[in-house]
Amino acid sequence: MSTLSLALYCEGPTDQRFFSILIQRISQQILARRERPFVEVLPVDVIKAKAPRHDEAILQAANQAAGYHALIVHADADHPTREKALQERFHPGYELVQRSRKKVCKNLLPVIPVYMTEAWMLADYKTLQAMLETRMSPQELGLPRRTKLIESDPDPKWTLNQLVKKAYPKQSRNWNKIVEKLYDELALFINLERLEALTAYKEFVKDMTQILMALNLIQRI
Prior knowledge:
Elements: E1 2-4, E2 6-9, H1 13-33, E3 39-41, E4 45-47, H2 54-64, E5 70-74, H3 83-99, E6 108-111, H4 117-121, H5 125-132, H6 138-141, H7 156-167, H8 175-189, H9 192-195, H10 199-214
Parallel strand pairs: 1-3, 2-4, 2-5, 5-6
């Protein structure tokens, strides 16, 4: 059996917890859809790096990720599209890595939610309802009627916090703990088909598919 080893460099600890699990599931789904069940996707390892500049931090992460098949670099878009984050917080680091003569992981791909990671967490309201043990409708929870409109929310982190407060109005002391748990729970159980309504998610799946083709783990169409 072949294996796929991935590393992840993230902006924050909650992003790390969410994406390390989710990216493993996404990779497994892509392989399954291409009828490659004999490829084992190993748990995604989180890489930590610090540097004065973001591009240098990515180079550090790529150095630590030497030996992995690919390094995923996370950055929130904080913008209506992912293009600004790509140009400012991914491409400079990517180019630095490609020029490096050291042993580094040169297969880099971005994961850039619009506007933030929490937008992906809001995409599957049925799983959210189950996790929060609530019967409140998406509208009552403050979610848009159409999933793709979540990417129009400039502050999905605030929306997520408000949603928890609506679901548990009498547990103010536990709101933060409930939100913290959601990063792990949703990463495990969120419906990936629901995420396909989000442009940023589809872009990541496309990039991951390209990497898997370049690694000859799936065939080109």
